[in-house]
Amino acid sequence: MASSRRGQPSLSVRMPSNQPLDRPPIDALFLIHFDVKAGYTILWKQNAPGIDLEGLVEYKSLPSGLHTVSEDLIYFVHDSAHAGLSAFVNMPCDEEEARNARMFAVGVLVPLSYGRLGRAWRHAEGLKEMAAKLAEDRKNTSILEEYWVANREKSGNDNRRLSGETPVSSPSLNSSPFPRKTHSRNRSASDGASLIPPGNKLSPYHPAWSLTSLLDKFGPLIFPIHRAALLRKRILISCHAPVHEVCDFVYNLSVLSNIPLSVTDILPGSASTQRLRPLFSIGVHDIPFLMDDFEASKRPRNDEDAIDDESGSGWIACTTDSILAMKDTLWDMLVTLPPDYSSNATERVWPVVECPRGQPIKATQRDLRRFTTLKNGLARLAAASAVPSTVPESPEEERSARRFSTQSSHIVRDPRDDAVEKVVEPLTWAAFAYNGYMWWASAGEQLRQEQQEEAAHDASLLADFGPSMTMPRPGSRSGQLSDSLGSLNASNRAPDGSGEARFELAIIAYFHRLTTQILSVLADLADSQDEPYTDHDDDDEGLSQASGERAPLRPSDSDLEPDDADAIRVDSHAVENMGLDVWSDTDALFIRELSILYFGRPARIEGKGVEVCGVRVC
């Protein structure tokens, strides 16, 4: 995958064409057995020269808790140069010495030069089949030999390009939903969204298929997690086995937090635009690496170092080892997922987000409204792009269809929907007073106008993805948060497993446009406040001469406090244009941290309120 500006790899999803799927070459293939006496044991392995497997891949391939599941797929990163994928199978048997279970994992290492996961998911089906066969007969290693010979990296393939892999981009789409006031440069979109030509698809095990499940799982909490990812925080997801879907979440959150190339043009040259590193599944054996990485984050870095070395930058990973969640110096944000059985609870159980440990993070009221609008927009997209059902023509297509249709199919009002209030900040007294005053002062007209502007902002983030992307009615809650987004996608996805990905790419485009919106507004403010504006009106010339010099319309740096001299002043209208909550202290803190990270300048947030005769009343 080609590198982009300032060393940031392209993070867009790539899709194969109608050509047969080919697999990326592998640098290692191994078979791991869990023995109740000997522990993890590598029974068979083949690897390229210079790659060390012993004492490493066993623990990465078999995270804690896998004994409770029958099968799983595990993604991990090995030696910072390879992506790993292992297929685990837990097969019952009559062997009492093995505690009536045979646990095997077949894994591969793929060079990261083929992408953030090396497109390792293309090996998933083959690895699962081999793991199932070897669980029945562990001596049948000939299938491993054949797979190694067929898929190993061969000399002369350093620049090999997988067939059908083309970047997802759309120069025709405007990545910024609103015209920029201070920049006249015309930029093409690189937001991961395209008007997908017929025939472009995602392979069956591509992590992007879990995007709707990601939104279902987190609800409005996806937005504070997305903001933490933009700040390149160290994000740890604590979960239970199986980990396949959570590894997909790690991949997708890394993609959603990508800085679009169109935005890097408006950022200062010194701004850090490194990607959020996906580490996928980690465990206690990765603690030394995480500690070294934390120390690396404290060292000063220049642009050249950032290009060649990602150590010390933000990352996102998942773990089944609770001890990592207890070591709060290793991470900045902890996301604790409820166990799978909690889905049957009477009241919806949401993930718990902490940043730092012990300080819960909730979605804002603005996040809740935005999530409702996003869900309604995706529902309209699903209805617009619905396809007629067909009968699978082969067992492989039937397996793909099952893979694509794992989500629930209820589209009804669920009483558990009310539990969303537990993960949303309550309405502040200031917001309550402002809304009440504006309703009284303008007979509700001002509030209706603000709601319409907000709805237009949100609707524009899903523009160009369907004929019915109309603006939702202000305050509408027609689409309940408990309705499964996955069911919308599954119901309109072809059961033949054809892999059309318009729905998933709309989600990626939405978040990339949201990122563009936030950073573009802040960049405009930074540019407009770089130099003081001097009034050159001829009518005021006499006044200027009388004062001895022309007076700037904004104070010079010497007139400001030291901390405010270079600060970017962000008023309430700018906060609204970013799509953030003007009443939320957490969003104000986010803007301050964002300004420091990407512009190297502090930010001063000016709150929203009402003044009567010069006296602020709310």
Automatic annotation (TrEMBL):
Domain DUF4484 per the UniProt entry, residue ranges: 424-618
GO cellular component, one term: lipid droplet
Protein name in the entry: DUF4484 domain-containing protein
Biased composition (Polar residues): 166-177, 477-492
InterPro entries associated with the record: DUF4484 (IPR028115), LCHN/Anr2 (IPR018626), Lipid_Metab_Assoc_Protein (IPR053056)
Superkingdom of origin: Eukaryota
Species: Fusarium oxysporum f. sp. rapae
Upper lineage: Eukaryota, Fungi, Dikarya, Ascomycota, Pezizomycotina
Chain intervals for the UniProt region annotation (Disordered): 155-199, 386-412, 464-497, 529-564
Ranges of compositional bias, category Acidic residues: 529-542
